[in-house]
Amino acid sequence: MNNINFAKTPLDRLIDTLIYILLLAICLITVYPLVYVLSMSISEPEAVLRQEVWLYPIGFSIASYELIMGSGMFWLAYGNTLWYVIVGTIINMVLTLSAAYVLSVNVFFAKKFFMVMFVITMFFSGGLIPLFLQVNRLGLYDTRWAIVLPAAVSTWNLIIARTYFKMSIPEGVTESAKIDGANDLLIFLRIVLPVSKPIIAVLVIFYAVAHWNSWFTANIFLASVDLHPLQLFLRRMLLTTADPFAIEASIEHVAAVQQMKFASIVISTLPILCIYPFFQKHFVKGIMLGSLKG
Questions:
Q1: Which CATH superfamily is domain 66-289 in?
Q2: What is the reported pTM?
Q3: Range(s) within the chain of domains with CATH label 1.10.3720.10
Q4: Is 144 in contact with 83 (CB distance < 8 Å)?
């Protein structure tokens, strides 16, 4: 066959240039807030007060980080957040993947009924007060389990995992395993999970980020300060230091307090930003395969 050379016309080159410019603009719009927040958090306090920082740091100061991280409650809250993220994500993954596999199997006679029950929860909710009464009556109030158990399964993530299993796991594979004597649990552990790394990575990211950023649930269900997560600790510190009668009347300290909101954003988002690149390749593949067909 003859090689066909598709030469680009001037219009094609113009369109490509416009696309590159648009993508570059989107990239700058996305990156600039991150750079600005980081620069504000490490610049000299006087420069922050004079609002001289707009891109790169002016001077260098970590006074805002010292104010936040100098408290022992910060490390306690950080440990609590790690516990909520790790334990909560494990519970989420076990329940979501198990339910998704069961609902993806054609021989399960009640899968339509249970799927409808799950979907209903996406559109109708009992509200905050019934949830609070339920958590209280179950004895979960002011315990760590009040954070991880009420949100044990996300219906949206369940649907994504179920769709992935239906599209990626051929029925012939599971049927052959059953002929060889494998039960459903063995098939799920030895066959389904090893070939489902993309969707597992997607769900881990979704659940872990949700637990990491969560603060409202802790604010409602946790009365003990010793159980508060990092997000609630940072919020409480910002509200406390915002009181002019609660801080020293020095310009440096006032500026450091102003920087605390930027340092809080850095502390809250840095772990997620560091972990996400390792899951990116699985994330893109899994979210596409899991959303093509219901």
A1: MetI-like (1.10.3720.10)
A2: 0.78
A3: 66-289
A4: yes
